[in-house]
UniProtKB/TrEMBL annotation:
PROSITE patterns: PORPHOBILINOGEN_DEAM. This is Porphobilinogen deaminase. GO terms for molecular function: hydroxymethylbilane synthase activity. The gene is hemC. Monomer. GO terms for biological process: protoporphyrinogen IX biosynthetic process. Belongs to the HMBS family. It comes from the Bacteria. Its cofactor is dipyrromethane.
Length: 322
């Protein structure tokens, strides 16, 4: 008798429809298919709120689950079994019934500068005063304003291709984008400068993928876990604990950098005011196995150093009335 795969053998992977999301999900699909040949892995795509609202600055619409909610509802209904996210888009609090099943190996987590052809060979410190830099992230804005007050910063929305088209059409002189996204979409050659952590700390979870699944589905969890990359997971769990403790979403100027050296993990964290005038930054080192505790401790330290005041100010500025 030949084994015919029953419908229950099919694992359905939820994904956003953007080109980056699809590249990432197809990578996960191929890796899982290779590790679990007895199963069939299908991709189910859906649009999220974040994909549909393109005319409003991200900072103004809030961030809680903007790019993830539809994928989560689908898992809770049993229409899909897991979801692939850019980890930085996944909120630190997940809905009841779901969990972060695995974190995959991280691509370069840094931000990168991409420029219009007329500024070929320029870097942030050689661009002329007034050059227009596109970014939709308050974190990038605050840090870059601090170090390059003579540059002009302008909001930019849309997927990566749209953004690059706007850049090449001359609407911007430069864009700040995640190196990971550019590389995954084949635009690595356009990265003019990888921005060092001394100038701009990256977003929590940047460059890694987070695979979310149902908390009460051990079979799927066991499958998903086979994609976990331990060092990346510990770094990202430290970063996510730091962010959770500060209660800031991805649209608050919070930056991090995490390094592993032997059995030790060093987490650097920053909270910045929107105008980039005030940067509160600190660092903590401890055993890798205490990753989340290190994130919580660093957050508490930063709050005491002035971060609590900065965050309170931002919440009243960005979301008046709430
Ligand atoms: N904010 C959107 C987003 N979410 C994930 C990435 C790609 C990089 C990653 O995996 O962190 C990007 C694009 C960007 O920030 O330039």
């Amino acid at each position: 008798m030949t084994a015919v795969s029953s419908p229950s053998q099919t694992v359905r992977i939820g994904s956003r429809k953007s080109q980056l999301a699809l590249v990432q999900t197809e990578w996960v699909q191929a890796e899982l298919q290779q590790r679990h040949p007895e199963r069939q892995f299908d991709v189910v795509t859906m649009s999220t709120q974040g994909d549909n609202i393109l005319d409003v600055a991200l900072a103004k619409i809030g961030d809680k689950g903007l790019f993830t909610k539809e994928l989560e509802v689908s898992m809770l209904r049993g229409d899909t079994d897991l979801a692939v996210h850019s980890l930085k888009d996944l909120p630190t609090h997940l809905p009841d019934g779901l969990m972060l099943g695995a974190i995959t190996e991280r691509e370069d987590p840094a931000d990168g500068l991409v420029v219009n052809a007329k500024f070929k060979d320029h870097q942030l410190d050689t661009l002329p005063p007034g050059a227009v830099i596109g970014t939709s992230s308050l974190r990038r804005l605050a840090q870059l304003r601090h170090y390059f007050p003579e540059l002009t910063f302008k909001d930019v929305r849309g997927n990566l291709n749209t953004r690059l088209q706007k850049l090449d059409a001359g609407e911007y002189d430069g864009l700040i984008l995640a190196v990971a996204g550019l590389k995954r979409l084949g635009f690595g050659a356009r990265i003019q400068q990888v921005i060092p952590p001394e100038i701009s700390l990256h977003a929590v979870g940047q460059g890694a993928l987070g695979i979310e699944c149902r908390a009460a589905d051990p079979e799927i969890l066991a499958i998903v876990k086979t994609l976990e990359h331990y060092p990346t997971a510990q770094c990202c769990l430290a970063e996510r604990a730091f962010l959770r403790e500060l209660e800031g979403g991805c649209q608050v100027p919070i930056g991090v950098n995490t390094q592993i050296d032997g059995d030790e993990l060093t987490l650097t964290g920053l909270v910045a005011s929107l105008d980039g005038q005030n940067l509160v930054k600190n660092q903590i080192t401890g055993p890798i196995t205490a990753a989340e505790g290190l994130g919580v401790t660093l957050a508490t330290q930063l709050k005491g150093q002035g971060a609590a005041k900065i965050l309170a100010e931002i919440f009243t500025e960005v979301r008046p009335g709430t």
